Every structure is written in structure tokens, then in C-alpha cells.
């Protein structure tokens, strides 16, 4: 899979969805093409200078590459994904899963079911036979399978949210302020210990 192939498939799929659909997407590289790329360390200096000029960011021609890159607010720059923009144009919304949280995505459970079925049925290990088994396994996925997987992913998210809330309640009171204190009574001497 690559970004070009996935984009073609995605645009066709968008046409089949009811308007106002919400699409949950993970962070696979082919899902994550940005509408506008932001300069990175592997860019050529001339390309960084051109990007800065295009975005009206002042710079001097004699500045080093690292100095040019420091002028770019990469952390605060909004990431506009190409597929999200396409979906919005067609009346849909893309919600992205947090990085490294594929377990929140029901399709991961569906793929596991499909792969398990193929592995169980595969006797020849020939590519044509495996392809046929994959298509059959996909055909066997039904609405109830999806329902179960979505419920499971939602339950995981709710459990993790509850755990995070409990964690925040425990950790929050333990925060120690390192701010300077002008009150001398707060200073602990060796004799106090």
C-alpha cells in the first residue's frame, strides 16, 4: 500500500458514504500525507529558504540551515492532512486515533479475525490459494462482527479514560512546586533532618 493507491481508494469510498459520516483513521504513513509539508532537517537549505520566503518568515541568506529551521514553529503548526481535507470537502469528518493506539481501531480486530481464518484454512501456502482464502475471509465478516469489534474498542477507550482520571487524581496532589520561596521558614537546614 502507498499514499497514491490509498487516496484513490479513499476518494471512491467517500462517494459511497452517507453525508456527514465520521471516518476513524490511524496514523499509517499512507493515511498521513500532509497538505503542506513543513521543512525538516533532511531538506536542502535552498528549499527551506524558499519555504520561509513563501510564508513571509524573515531570514538572512547567510544563516545556517539549523538557524533557518529554528524559525519554523513545527510543534505548534497545525497539521492538515490531505485525506481529512478531501473528506471535509465531501461533507465527512476524519477523526485520527492517537499515535501508537491502534488497539482503539476496530479494524485491527477484524484484520486479526481475517488473518486467523486464513491461517486456519491455508493448506498449500501458494499465493493464489492464500488470495482466495483472504477474499473468502473478508466475505465472512458480517455486521455483528463489526458491532462486537466496535464495542470492544469503545470499552477499551472508556477503561483507559477511567484509568487516566484515577491516575490524575493520585498524581495531581503529589506535584511539588520548585518555585523560589522568599519565606525563610520554608528552608530546611541539615539540623532539621
Total of DSSP H or I helical runs spanning 4+ residues? 7
What distance separates the N and C termini? 64 Å
Structural class: mainly alpha
| Biggest sheet record | 2 strands, parallel
Average pLDDT score: 88
Q: Compute the CA-based radius of gyration.
A: 26 Å
Q: Within the largest sheet, what's the order of strands?
A: 1-2
| SSE arrangement, N to C | HEHHHEHHH
Helical proportion, percent range: 40-55%
Quick one: how many beta strands? 2
Give the percentage of residues in beta strands.
Answer: under 5%
Shape designation: extended
Low-confidence stretches: 189-193
Summarize the structure.
The chain has 193 residues and is mainly alpha-helical.
Q: Mind sketching the topology for me?
A:
Elements: H1 3-16, E1 22-25, H2 45-54, H3 65-70, H4 82-89, E2 93-96, H5 106-121, H6 127-140, H7 143-171
Characterise the protein shown here.
By secondary structure, this protein is mainly alpha-helical. The chain has a domain at 100-174. The protein is 50% helix and 4% strand. It contains 7 helices and 2 strands, in the order αβαααβααα. It has helices spanning 3-16, 45-54, 65-70, 82-89, 106-121, 127-140, 143-171; strands at 22-25, 93-96. Strands 1-2 form a two-stranded parallel sheet. α5 (106-121) packs across α7 (143-171). The longest helix has 29 residues, at 143-171. It is extended, with a radius of gyration of 26 Å.
Amino acid at each position: 500500500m502507498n499514499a497514491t493507491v490509498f487516496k484513490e481508494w479513499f476518494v471512491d469510498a467517500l462517494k459511497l458514504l452517507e453525508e456527514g459520516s465520521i471516518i476513524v483513521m490511524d496514523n499509517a504513513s499512507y493515511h498521513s500525507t500532509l497538505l503542506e509539508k513543513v521543512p525538516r532537517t533532511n531538506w536542502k537549505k535552498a528549499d527551506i529558504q524558499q519555504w520561509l520566503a513563501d510564508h513571509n518568515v524573515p531570514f538572512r541568506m547567510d544563516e545556517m540551515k539549523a538557524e533557518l529551521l529554528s524559525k519554523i514553529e513545527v510543534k505548534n503548526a497545525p497539521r492538515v492532512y490531505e485525506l481529512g481535507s478531501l473528506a471535509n470537502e465531501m461533507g465527512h469528518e476524519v477523526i485520527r486515533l492517537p499515535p501508537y493506539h491502534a488497539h482503539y481501531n476496530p479494524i485491527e480486530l477484524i484484520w486479526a479475525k481475517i488473518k486467523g481464518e486464513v491461517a486456519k484454512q491455508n493448506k498449500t501456502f501458494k499465493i493464489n490459494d492464500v488470495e482466495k482464502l483472504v477474499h473468502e475471509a473478508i466475505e465472512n465478516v458480517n455486521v455483528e462482527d463489526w458491532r462486537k469489534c466496535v464495542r470492544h474498542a469503545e470499552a477499551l477507550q472508556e477503561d483507559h479514560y477511567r484509568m487516566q482520571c484515577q491516575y490524575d487524581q493520585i498524581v495531581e496532589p503529589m506535584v511539588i512546586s520548585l518555585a523560589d520561596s522568599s519565606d525563610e521558614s520554608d528552608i530546611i537546614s541539615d539540623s532539621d533532618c
